[in-house]
Amino acid sequence: MWEKYANIKFEHTLNNPNILISFKNKIHSNENNNRKCGIPLVNSELAHAFFPSAYQNVTEIHLKSDIDWNEEISAISNKKLSLFLVLAHAIGIEHFAVSNALMFPYYKKPKEIFNAVNFTLSLDDLLAVENLYGKNKLEVLNIFCPNISILEQLRNLLLRLTLIEDKKDDDDDEI
């Protein structure tokens, strides 16, 4: 999902990963350094992640091992939301106090089926990931306007501005 909006790509690799994902018990150790993790997976916590470090080029995501992570794609799921949240932390995105943002720090039970393919980030989520990784170079802007005449007016205005700029450039050449 984050790839859709920013210049970042996730690939599975066994050699020198940037993010290590592992299944853990309540009290557990980190994969990277085998030290005790300071964040136990207790109560309703499904997963947690560490922010990227300036000192290491690897970070970790710990998923609770006694959870069935294999579920129907169409299920309403706080598990899927948790995965996107911890992945966001692993790539450096923090929580912020915008209630409609994915990165809002308080849990909101999904009201509809969560679909990662059609999920749209809030503007704040989008700006956060773009600030860290840049815009997706393959970005396509789709415009929906219920009133086609307004869309036509906008298109004509943009064409006129382009023509004015072209004329201005021609005038500059003569000087």
TrEMBL record:
GO biological process, one term: proteolysis
InterPro entries: MetalloPept_cat_dom_sf, Pept_M10_metallopeptidase
Keyword line: Hydrolase, Metal-binding, Metalloprotease, Protease, Signal, Zinc
A single MF term (Gene Ontology): zinc ion binding
Gene Ontology cellular-component terms listed: extracellular matrix; extracellular space
Domain of life: Eukaryota
SUPFAM superfamilies reported in the protein's UniProt record: Metalloproteases ('zincins'), catalytic domain (SSF55486)
Reported cofactor(s): Zn(2+)
Annotated family: Belongs to the peptidase M10A family.
Protein name per the record: Peptidase M10 metallopeptidase domain-containing protein
